[in-house]
Amino acid sequence: MGQIKYQLPPDEVLAPGHFACPGCGATLTMRYALKALGRKTVVVIPACCWSVIDGPVPYSAAGVPVFHTAFETAASTASGVKAGLDAQGDHETTVLAFAGDGGTFDIGLQALSGAAERNEDFIYICYDNEAYMNTGIQRSSATPFGAWTTTTPAVSPKAEKKKNIIEILAAHRIPYLATASVAYPDDMIAKIRKAKDIRGFKFIHVFSPCPPGWKFEPEDSIKISRMAIESKVFPLIEIIDGIDYALSKEPDGIPVRDYIKMQGRFRHLNDEQIGIIQANVTEDWERLRAKFAPTRKVSRSRRDESTGENKSSQTRNVTRTKNARKRAQKSRG
Amino acid sequence: MTKYKFTTVEEMPPLAFSLESTREIPTGSWRHVRPVYRDKNSPCHVTCPAGEKIPDYFELVRQKKYKEAWYKILEDNPLPGVTGRVCYHPCEGQCNRAGYDGAVAIHNIERFVADKNFKNRKLPAAVEARKSEKVAVIGSGPAGLSCAYQLSRLGYRSVIYEADHEPGGMLRYGIPDYRLPKKILDKEIKDIEALGVEIMVDSKIGDNVAWSELERYDAVFVAVGATHSRKIGAPGEDLKGVYTGIDFLKELSTGNVPKVGRQVLVLGGGNTAIDAARSALRLGKRVTVLYRRTRVEMPAVPEEIEEAEKEGVHFEFLVTPVKISGSKGKASEIELMKMQLGEPDESGRRRPVPVIGSNFSMRADTIISAIGEEPDLSFLPYSFLRKGIRLFVDDEHTTGVPGIFAGGDAATNPNGTVVNAIRAGKEAAISIHEFLGWRSRSNGVSHDAVKPEEVNTFYFPHEGRVEVPRITVQKSKTTFSEVNKTLTEEQALTEAERCFTCGTCLHCDVCMTFCPDVAISKDESGEYTIDYEHCKGCGICVNECPRGAMELVPEGAREAVEEVEHI
Amino acid sequence: MMEKNVANTKRDGLLHPSIDKVVVIEGTHAASHAVKLARVQVIAAYPITPQTSVVEKLSEIVSDGDLDAKFIKVESEHSAMACCIGSSISGARAFTATSSQGLALMHELLHWAAGSRLPIVMVNVNRAMAPPWSIYVDHNDSLSQRDTGWLQFYAESNQEVTDTVLQAYKIAETVSLPVMINLDAFVLSHTSEPVALPKQEIVDEFLPARKASFKIDTSDPKAFGALIGPEAYMEMRYKLYRAMEDARSVIREVDRDFAEKFGRSYGGLVEEYMTEDAETVLITSATAVSTARIAVDELRSMGFPVGLMKLRVFRPFPVDEVRELAKHVRKIGVMDRNVSFGATGIIYQETKAVLYNAADRPSVFGFIAGLGGRDITPETIKEIFSYLMNHDEPESESVWVSLKTSDADQGARPFPETGAGIRRSEGVK
User: For chain C, what are the domain ranges?
Assistant: First the structure.
């Protein structure tokens, strides 16, 4: 089978010269998203690193229209953009809300929930760098247990677990929900493309490492992302209609310690605390794995029943995990 | 912050919108380290005594360009069919995949390439212009053949003087057919002859050819090999039924099957011992190898020892011969003494120490002594510098006598391997070329190789090493036909795919895929360009490169500047 | 002065040719019908008393297919405004409605809409801010949004609500600024009045489809509202400031155009009533204006030279109109249905402020009345006039009218029925 290679769409929509820090995961996320969606895309960006990354006036890196909006309004502004385009007869342009974890898990959660519940027809990508990075590394509800941030100093690191945004969104029964990682660009692009072809609300949660915020060397961004997947800290999954779970990549199951040890934000942790994290990860993984029922009748998507337009999920009897693994292998080339 | 481009209200847009791409912003100025593409040596290449460019010909194999792959090997080694069978392949020992899921079967792919080109072939013409100088080569073993071949590539005519009736030296007389069929050797020697190399057989210098005849040559390469078996130094050595390994094998290879009793004992732990043992086995005898150290210390190629064991050769370790006795001038028993391992000797192996009073005897009607070979340098007309039993040569293979070069087992190749002899021949050819007033093109190969930690194994899913096809043990121990088979094309391709191609860019696009700065592009010819105007030097490309073919260099360093010009 | 309401339009026995039909509807529905006539493309709203009937009616209109619009029933006012911003930047005509707390929640995005120069139109039903909870009228909610860059209109009648919504889109899309139309809770929002609904085709002539001068466009990709440095932020703000300045003439012009097409005018930024020979003029806004008209009529019948200026537009502030008034009156009273704590009524402050650098500076008196739905009756207005006529200079910065207090110094006194004791004019200057 040889070397893993990636065949990305060749068009480079994103321009160089943007203001991202070296090794920025959020920027790779945008690069892949734009490759997946193409130039007929409008991006709505709330307050987040990308408010800066795209470039100061009069510059822009995105190569597609960008509307910078208020912190908590990614989902609501995108709803408006989509409605506006629709009202003017433009049903082709893809609307993408592109927000950080603060704007998604915290301040933007209400608008996000609203848009998800209304099943607004756009793609929401949350690039999760697990803290308020643009403001200088303050804890968010996406910050994992035990992590250092400037508001959870090493002597009293974050005492709470990361909020499970995926389950929150799954509970909204949106037609398409997926996690992705910058270390698996082919998987991410496939998921974003899939999302593009589905009518209704699509949410993609992307693991986007932040070298200065997590305290690691920028060249390790991809390595760390990979370890997050392999250690089951961040499983790669898809959820159709909030109920049909599929695993995109079977993790190798490396110890969480290996992942933790790569990052300065966890440096203060002792063995006991690392043990707690490992236990949490294992428990969450077991809980998640229980949802990949080996064989189950998968219902048609909500939209499908009402409009017949959604081709995303067909009725099928499948071994989800196995198929997902096959897919992952296939995508590795 | 970039300066706003407008100076007055009137020039500004009605609201804050963009008018240009960030491409205008030279974020490359943020950088303090710079990624560069820099092909590095692979450990296999660095380790290969012949210096074969293994990653390069593997890539050609993957592209199914078998002829080009063969040509690539031929740059360094004219005998891939031979080495593809008998080389001890130290390359595989250093293979960065060894510690991952098993070394790549480089050896077998070399053989595959050679065999794939067995028919309808022609060696590439000389790479250098014809020269007027002529060179004499003494000995047509691997060192001599390699030297003559490389000289012909460099444009020289050379004549090989071979004492035996057929060329090949130890390749022909020392390696049994089941490892190296003669047709392979013959073909590769013919190729060399086809390039204009003259081989004069039955021409023993100092015997039927006078040394003085060599004076008409502009240089001489002495590559007579090590053809004399070392004496056991025990009483009874001269009894009937006691052979040297070399003689035994030579007899076999010339078709004269030696008389061998039922119970064969082989003394020694090197390749000759194993070859002799496996050959005797094929004559239907019970064979035991006696070695004074343990299996770990055996100098023979481990695979050969395994094969021998599989085929039914017995081993007795930590024993040394004391006396051979017999009746009617014929050997019938050997007295042995037990040994134990003491302190390490200069070779690093633990020295065998006799256990006093441990003597015992074994019945034996045939004893093959293969405890080492030494060169026969008696033909030399005057005294050369020696190093022990061998000719002393420096790194350039010069003997100290101007114009006389030496190499191979006669000089510098104490472990007597084919590939080291090939290397000696190649190096000597270059030295001769320089001696004759030319400048060599090869410019000091760096021996720094890509380390295992520089390989990003993520990109290489686990895939076990190919199982080398062979005839069954049942069959192999009864015949002199070749034991190992050539890989099938499918096997060779799969195995070639396993190669990490350490240090050589394969244009796999991983660097480009993960660049957050969109600063790497690929031109029509498939070459990458790094846009240093925008690259911030994060280093992801270098870190992610599957094969260590990129480097981060400090910004402003001289090498960085050179690299830019190169790119 | 042009006739301003349906009754007057009908007085000649004929309906104005622009009128499609006359309906008796609440103020909220007057807004809803105007939204339909304006062919709004995106509506996003969240319910709040007493705005609810605006969006309920619109839901019906959209559901019935009478208006081809996307109606996003959002989960908050904040999202309502965000949706309007999103749809407006995409080039669509957007509308929302809210009130009080909802408006306050939108605050951040009011800046965003104006800063993005988006011609969004919003109806705000003026309702007092909590706590304590109140659902009744005062203007603190909208006046708290004074500095967000929105134009602010205050409607006196349901007809004016309908007409102002139509005017508002034209103004907003001309100056690229958002417009807020305020109507008093219940007094207007839930009070039925006859409203002449114009014919769609004439509205279409007056208000053609929006042609955005800038919008998100994948064929001409731009980023809107990115980071900007101190070297250019100020100029961007100056542009917004200029747009608001320019809005004054646009408002006047649009009102004139409207009058030509529909036969009704609202005077542009202000409407004056019996000010020509008035010595004492009261400035006020919204439904209190109608009440004040009655008081002025009564006082005029008693011979008092009083007049009234209706402040129709608070932003941009009618600087020229107030200064012009100041040239020929002795005293100006300002009745604010709001209060700025630590200062005075807001319109009072603004009135004084525009006069300070004027050549003619009559005495200006500030009155606070009608907070949290407290009734403003003709008697309330007369009290104020009584105070104005009996004082040469204000005794304090704010007189709280009809305040239930034992503090004798605080507040105006009831107007005596005969007018006795009220100082008579000493002649118009």
Answer: 6-262, 270-400
